[in-house]
Design goal:
By secondary structure, this protein is mostly beta strands. Helices cover 9% and strands 42% of the residues.
Length: 132
């Protein structure tokens, strides 16, 4: 009983949220997201979830930071507004990066590969920092 109370208290106090990535159906390659970029729109909310929409060329951009704390990340192929879950074994090479250049705020990035791990090398490395 005591352990249950501790778990419930921790869940109530944490910054819990879900992240949903919407990726165009059939996309294969590196997905690259520019984070905390004030020239980009904020993430769309869907209940407790933050939705990151990815363009046909594999890029996303948001004014928001990604949530920290306990969260669940889900990946979907999207076509005509319909979501289909992406198998977890097709999400590979997750990486985050930041650059710090004197005189301007640090830029933050996230990238992951959509496709079989065996094919990842054929796509090179993610292009971080993202060129704007």
């Amino acid at each position: 009983m005591r352990a249950l109370v501790i778990v419930l208290l921790a869940a109530a106090l944490c910054a819990c949220s879900d992240q949903i990535y919407e990726i165009p159906t059939g996309y294969k390659g590196w997905v690259e997201v520019d984070l905390a970029n004030p020239s980009c729109p904020p993430l769309r909310s869907e209940g407790w979830s933050k939705v990151v929409s990815i363009s046909r060329d594999g890029h996303g951009c948001t004014a928001d930071e990604l949530p920290s704390g306990l969260n669940r990340t889900r990946y979907f192929f999207v076509e005509n507004g319909e979501r289909k879950p992406i198998a977890r074994d097709l999400i590979n090479g997750e990486v985050t990066a930041a650059d710090n250049v004197a005189g301007r705020p640090a830029r933050k990035y996230l990238a992951f590969f959509i496709g079989p791990r065996a094919e990842m090398k054929g796509f090179g490395s993610p292009r971080l920092p993202i060129k704007r």
